[in-house]
Amino acid sequence: MSGEAPVKKSSYTIPIGPIHPALKEPVMFTFQMNGEVVESVDFAPGQTHRGIEWMGMRRNPVQIVHLTDRICGICGVTHSICFARAVEQIMEIQVPERADYIRTIIAEMERIQSHLLWAGVAAHELGFDSLFYLAWRVREEAMDVIELITGNRVNYGIIQVGGVRRDIVEEQYPRIQQCLTYYRELMDKLLHVFLHDRTITMRCRDHGILTYEDAMKLCVVGPTARASGVKKDVRIDYPYCAYGDLSIDIVTPNLLMGEVRGDVYDRIVVRVLEIGQSIDIIQQCLDNIPSGPIIWEEKIAKLLLACKKAKGEAIGRHEAPRGEALHYVRMEGEEAPYAWKVKASSYSNLISWPVILRGEQIADIPIIVASIDPCLSCTDRVAVVNKEQQAILSKEELHRLSVEKTRRLQHD
Amino acid sequence: MIGMTPLTPQEVVDRFRNTFGEGVEGTLIRERAEGMKKRPNYNLWITLRQELLKPAIQTLIDISFPHLAVISGVDIEDQIELVYTFSLYFGVKHGEYLVNLKIRVPKSDPRVPTISDLMPSAVFTEREKQEMLGIEVVGIPDPRRLFLPDDFPPGVYPWRKDEKGIPPSMIKNLWEAKRPKDRPAPPVPEKPEAPVCSVECHDPSEAPNETETEVKKE
Amino acid sequence: MITDFVIKNAPILVVAIPLIGAFLCPLVARISPMWRKTWVLGVVTVTSLIAILLASIVLTQGTVIYVFGASTSNLTVPIDSGGIPIRIIFTVDAMSAAMEVIMAMIGFSVILYSMSADQERSSLEQYYTLFLLLICSVMGMVTTGDLFNFFVFLEISSMASAGLVAYRVEKGRAIEAAIKYFIVSTIAAIFFLFAIAILYGQYNALNIAMLAQRLQFTLIDKIALILIVMALSTKCGAVPMHFWTPDAYSLAPSSVTAMLVVVSLASLYALFRFVFTMYGLTLSYVTIGWVLITLGVLSMVIGVTMAIPQKDVQRLIAYQGISQIGYMLLGMGVGLAVLGNPAQLSSFGIIAMEGGIFHIINHAIYEGLLFLTAGSIIYRIGTRDLDKMGGLGHSMKYTMIFFMIGVLAIAGVPPFNGFASKLLIYESVYLFNPVLAIIALVVSILTLASFVKVFHSIFMGPRLLEYAGVREAPLPMLIGMGILAVLIVVFGFFPQVVVNTIVAPAAQALVNQGGYLSVILGGR
Amino acid sequence: MALLPMIPELLKQLFLEPATNKFPAKYLPSSITQFLREVNEGKVGMNPPVKLPLRFRGKIAYEREACTGCTLCAKVCPAHAIDILPETKRMRIWVTQCIFCSQCTDACPKNGLSMSEEFLLADEDRYSEQRIVE
Amino acid sequence: MIEQLGGFLYVVLGTIFVALFGIGFGLGVLGVDRKLTAHMQARIGPPLRQPFIDIRKLLLKENIIPENAISWLFNAAPVFALAASVTILLYLPIGGLPPVLGVYGDIILIMYLLTVPALAMVTGGFASGSPYATVGAQREMITMMAYELPLATVFIALAWRLARAGVQDPFSLASLTSTPIWSVAGPLGIIGALILLIVLIFVTPGELSRVPFDTPEAETELAGGLMVEYSGKNLAMFYLAQGVKSVAMASVIVALFLPWGLSEFVPGIPALGILLDFLWYIVKVLAVLFVSVSLIRVAMARFRISQVVTMYWIYLGGLGILGLTLLFLDSLGGV
Amino acid sequence: MKPTPSFNRSLWVYHLNSGSCNGCEIEIVAALAPRYDPERFGVKLVGSPRHADALLVTGPVPNKMKERVLRIMEQTPDPKVVICVGTCGESGGVYYDSYSLAGPIDDVIPVDIYVSGCPPRPEAILHGVVKAIEKLEQLQGGAT
Ligand code: SF4
Ligand code: SF4
Ligand code: SF4
Ligand code: SF4
Ligand code: SF4
Ligand code: SF4
Ligand code: SF4
Ligand code: SF4
Question: Fewest CB within a 10 Å sphere: which of B105, C301, C327, F74?
């Protein structure tokens, strides 16, 4: 026996998903493993396709605004802003300034709740439930204010083509102000518990690294890019809504850490710092918000008519909590848009998975996957599926693979 | 890559015009200003001849390595228009331009070269265009489908507006599910007729109720 | 009449019966295979019965001495020899009796097992002959009271084992392994012979007791001791002389492997016997004690770490066996190291030795069982490669249970026998040096972990296609394994009984050098 | 503690009032049916949900009298929740389909539609009476 | 004869009593743990009797045996886990009462018995044939390997120090309880013992598979790990075993480090003394579990499996050796 | 087997996303947050359908997910409750005319309780769970 070297498989495959607790949403991963280490990654999105763009091409803009809310429930306002801005450019109308400010405020509220949500989920992936509970407990404050402003906690439905549907009235200011104070006081604690916890540092530092070069080449967006030192933020680079009026700067991890490593930890840093930035933005908006109308045309019937007349193409962008989202809309004088392409933030970020997962251990997969804050419901919106899919390995095969893996584990 | 001498939008367009001359079929600079200070942002639209796509992207890269957001596609009669959306950034606050390069390919020969050698991140969105619009990306390193399953009927491309689009047989109306059909309408007190519409944006009979959908169904 | 005879001659019978059985085997085999089977089984049964009888005699009456050619046993020292025992004597004290019983039981189980396991093989009569010879030789090794006799039995065992290892002659590598085994054994034997020569040359005696009495502990004696330790630790496969075991164990048929375990334990027994009884207090026991302890710890750690990456079941078990030998060396070594300190000896030394001895016994049983279960798996699926196994738990339920029992025993999980003996070791060794106890504890867990993986690879997982037709092992094999499993459980549940009746006397016998001498040399 | 910054935080929290809003009761009553009945009868109080904001968008309310049957609401409804009843030229809203966007109420020229505060709509039957507004 | 029968009856009844107590108290402990955890996380948490309700629920659920499982093993594993956990309790003094088996348990025996429920879980996980469970089972084994080193160090160190102080039979819980380490150790030794206590406290969550050492059951990575395929009464049994094991582990810590009773304060009233001791024991167990399970669990993130090993072998193992050394130095000066 | 009251007070839920927009997902998770804390009622989120008593299903069930939904349903031991959270799972909601959907959930697996809302407030989800318990109570024939 000693003479003949046992046949070693150089790698084996483990599939994860589409339903796996580490993923908030279904996606199908295939990992090529070498021992405990990931060699390469492939993934198949497409489990939550609902064909939203196609549906949009059958509906009028007022309906689509609500459909865009439901491209994704987490960046509820993102896609509405993108879509509305695109249509407004085609119609060549000006949005009232007050509406721009309200859009900004609500978008930043959304960023706060989304980052806290992510922080909670990441803590949960790390098995740190108290932090999960803490994040979600303080998130309720933002949810309350969002509900106060818009009337719903999620899928706000506040954007309309030409402006916003709900004003922020005088009586609401103190409540919003209170929320800002609450978070401002909380920031130190958040930074402390997230960034100074030994266990978190151990799990996140130097894992899932995305270098600056890779980040540029792969065109990732949002906190994922900024954590790698790419200074890119639509809000600051490309003035729109009220962002052009504000004094804000791009958040990169070196502001706090003095260096950029592009690892999971840096992504936490960027997100937590951005919560603080959002508080600041909302404060500036509240202080400077002009008075005036909130929508270009209040009468829905007239609005629809104007939309129907519009012709042309345009692009609306917005920096969502996860990075740049972008809608390409083309109208041809019909009720429904002629073409509509949604580019959501995760769409750009998913491509970094293979890079950041390579060489990592199995146990780190969930947190690294989560670190780009993936949500696929936006990315998946287009594909069409009508037959039973067969990409999933049979159960037997899965078992077989697992057995092989066990073998591998034994020998390392 | 970042930190080049900033060009104005006009200079960018001029660069293209100078480099490609006749190859540039049209250019448009759209300026839009929002907020109180009305700081403008710029969207550049450059229509090119099909074969100039890659040199054009190279030009962009030479200016400053751009960020590829997405490739959009529209089915326009017998052509497919592809819009390559980039953002060009010089490291200056408020100084990013959106650059849209548009090309058209005929449906009869729907082939475009891959740009993934220049922009590695393009693979994803190119794969999507292949399956959604039925174009062929020549030289794509990973030609598999992205969203569609392998057993999706060949020759059906969801974004096509022609006969290759989604056939009605694939559509399911979810709202119909077990909804009671024979519920009587509740009585209404007699009232004067509804006033005539002053705007005339829509004809009440056009409302998206069952009638409309039923037509589509059969 | 016959009973009387048997009782009187029991010590020689346990050696003689297998010997005669071995030589008659080819003759009987001429009649029919059925007869051969019955014959062999009969021989082992009788041997076992006599061994048990002998043990009971020893327990009730104390050490039994059998002198060849003398009318009574107390005539060990011929009147005319000037106090030099020149007769060949067999000494059966509690320790040897215990070993004999265990060996006989294992021999019995293995034979039963190989009735069906090996029935398709060719030249079975040679196989059985060798087998019986082997039993004869190990019995001899533990009973003899004479160095040269021991050497003879050692040689017989080497030849028989080599023959058995090579038994699967169809495989070239088996022969290679056999030759390797034989060469190693021979070198060991030569060392041993040197030692004998040295001692004989100086003291003109071969009898252990005699030598013990006369030993001067000169430099040359020390060399002899070193030679003996080297020879016997090679034979029992302790680190650093362990390299041959995995090869031999992984290539021999499983039933043979189980017996090889017995051989190595007999050697281990002899090692202790010589070290304690012959050299005893005369040697620098602390140093030698530490030597044994070091060898033990090394064996434990190296054995288990080498075992983890193995893919051949038998090889893996062999490495685990090396690791277990370490425990015995550790226990005995600690005992030896405090031999000269009566307070420490009584507070923990003796317990450590009891642990070591008990572990020898237990080890023979569970290691044998593990090899047999591995054998029955190989018998059914025809591969020893762990990577190729899987899902057998669905079809080989009983084999799986036996394997589990063996695993839990070897890993020292209560309530199986391995735990009982290891507990004795832990709870005494820590007083000598706590770190040793910690290492011992941790190695056990490593053993467990490694076996859990093995267990999983062999039995767990979905039913594999290629083994769809695999059935449970045949009944005789199951019975063979069952006997050992029952022993494991019984020893595990009633360790106190075993310790009190067998182990404690055995340990006493080793420590009590004077006692041994006085029995043999008639109270001088 | 420096390495585990949560510990002081947690220990402090141990002695603070939990952040939980005790809706509908602190623990599960021994019988829900009875509890709900008693709540209806006003015998026991139900802990209210977190306070609703002013513009909360709950279940839709419809005033048939005010409506003129202009169908604008059906046109803007993004969820196909509004059926036009041709016999009476009035609307029927399927709550089970409604996504509570309030678009129809914005659109209605006659203020025939509004969003109520009712939002606890779980039901065994998605087409039960309380879920059809007409 | 009658006496033997009486003894036998005593053991049987005692076993039943201890099993019931262990299960009841075990569930109670889980309830308290959940409640306290919830409060620390600013939640109300379940009612204290929630674990009992959960168990009753599980008992009436369907017991699904997965297709690929080896069914008898799959079903036997939970029984073994529970039985082994209860067995541990038989060796432990509960309150002021001596152990049921009359003999005080041997600490090494207990250490090994503690591994048996884990082994049963591992076997069950393997037998279920699910890949998640298989990975979980392997991790459980690794975790076990990891924590045995510090655990062994603590036990051996304590026993050794006691033996040095002339205590007979230092591995027996009886001796450990009657002569707590604090009473024999000098100042250095007390520091050493404190270190060992800390080590033991960190071993507890590993032993009980709780955060941060719950990698085998990591919900996010393994969808419930070892237990994925278990349902109904089998799951209930594992759950019970978990509770009983928690009590056992806490009792070990109590016996080793906090053995004092209250009965000495009420001399002359034995019944009251026993009762007091019993209540005091419950308080101690709860306190130990609060620190070693609830608090650690809420304050830490889960470790990666490789970190579990480093943590236990390097850090805690090192601490253990440090404790041992201190005890050693102490014994040089003291005895 | 007839569920007894203890079943109701220990409802372990498994959360199954079948193509939702995430709105309902996060509201379900929010419902677990300290503000609402369903653990008061013995409700606990579990990671394996084998442990579950109730399935919280969200989303309109894309064709691609249909088989999975069925499989998870099958893996959940009896007795079990299915709670459909959100309008789009109930009736398609805003995705009423899509071509890639097999839903609503009711078309795929039987649903016991529908929770309306897009998304429902966490309290509404709790209410849904309470409703489910009420339904169970009635099945047990006890209004006591
Ligand atoms: S967050 Fe937790 S509960 Fe939710 S899916 Fe992930 S693992 Fe499961
Ligand atoms: S990235 Fe897409 S799916 Fe994710 S939250 Fe944003 S819009 Fe939603
Ligand atoms: S909406 Fe316009 S047309 Fe209709 S009633 Fe009102 S004013 Fe008249
Ligand atoms: S919707 Fe259009 S057509 Fe209908 S009443 Fe209003 S403006 Fe007139
Ligand atoms: S609220 Fe929205 S979904 Fe509901 S009926 Fe009105 S428009 Fe339709
Ligand atoms: S919009 Fe108002 S008035 Fe018109 S149909 Fe609807 S409810 Fe009636
Ligand atoms: S934890 Fe294990 S089973 Fe789960 S995804 Fe990771 S590797 Fe796979
Ligand atoms: S009901 Fe609404 S919020 Fe919930 S998943 Fe569906 S669309 Fe999203």
Answer: F74
Give the tens place of pLDDT for each residue, E55-109.
888 888 777 777 777 778 888 888 888 888 888 888 777 766 666 665 666 788 8
- Per DSSP, the three-state class of B192 is coil
Element (H, E) at C263: helix C254-272
How far is it, in rounded angstroms, from Cα A228 to Cα A216? Answer: 9
The set of residues, in sequence order, having a beta carbon less than 8 Å from that of B166 and lying 6+ positions away, is A54, A384, B156, B158, F99
Whether residue F45 has its Cβ less than 6 Å from ligand 1 = yes
CB A240 within 8 A of CB B41: yes
Are C485 and C408 in contact by the 8 Å Cβ rule? The answer is no
> What is the C-alpha to C-alpha distance for residues C141 and C131, in angstroms, rounded to an integer?
15
Residue C279, Cα to own-chain centre: how many angstroms? 22
Give the three-state DSSP class for A324: strand
* CB-closest option in F92, F112, F124 to D120: F124
Q: Which residues pair with A330 in a beta bridge?
A: A313, A339
Give the dihedral sign, CA A47/A48/A54/A55.
positive
Indicate the number of domains in chain A.
1
Are D78 and F96 a contacting pair, CB within 8 Å? no
Q: Which ligand is nearest to the CA of F95?
A: 8
Q: Where are the domains of chain F?
A: 5-140
**pLDDT tens-digit profile of B27-65?**
888 888 888 888 888 888 999 888 888 888 888 888 888
Q: How, if at all, do strands F113-115 and F81-85 pair? A: parallel
Residues C390, E78: Cα–Cα separation, whole Å: 23
**Which residue range forms the structural domain that includes residue E145?**
2-334
Structural domain spans, chain B: 9-170
A151: phi then psi, degrees, rounded to nearest 5: 95, -5
Look at chain C and report how many structural domains it folds into: 1
Tokens of A254: 């070196």
Host domain of residue A326? 52-370
Rounded Cα–Cα distance for residues C287 and C108 (Å):
39
Work out the minimum CA distance from F10 to partner chain A, whole angstroms: 21
For D52-133, CATH gives 3.30.70.3270
Contacts 24+ apart (CB under 8 A), B120-127: B120/A217, B120/A218, B121/A217, B121/A218, B121/A219, B121/A220, B121/A348, B121/A351, B121/B68, B122/B68, B122/B71, B123/A351, B124/A347, B124/A350, B124/A351, B125/A347, B125/B68, B125/B70, B125/B71, B126/B71
Q: Pick one of 3.30.460.80, 3.40.50.12240, 2.40.30.10, 3.30.365.10 as the CATH number of B9-170.
A: 3.30.460.80
User: Can you tell me the mean pLDDT for A4-19?
Assistant: 38
| CA distances in angstroms from A396 to A16, A134, B36, E129, E226, listed in the order given | 15, 41, 63, 10, 19
Quote the minimal CA–CA distance from E99 to chain C in Å.
18
Q: Give chain E positions within 8 Å (CB) of F9.
A: 50, 53, 57
ω into E51 cis (within 30 of 0): no
Please give the Cα distance from C244 to C235 (Å, whole number).
Answer: 9
By CB atoms closer than 10 A (0-12, 13-18, 19+), residue D54 is exposed
CA of A373 to the centre of ligand 2 (A): 9
- CATH code of the region F5-140: 3.40.50.12280
The answer to whether residue E269 scores a pLDDT higher than 50 is yes
Which stretches of C338-433 are DSSP H helices?
342-344, 350-381, 397-410, 417-432
| Ligand 8 contacts CB of residue F58 (under 6 A) | yes
- Is the pLDDT score of B19 beyond 80? yes
Task: Specify the CATH number for the domain of residue A160.
Answer: 1.10.645.10
Distance from the A275 Cα atom to the nearest Cα atom in chain E, whole angstroms: 22
Q: What is the pTM of this model?
A: 0.80
Q: Domain limits at C391?
A: 284-493
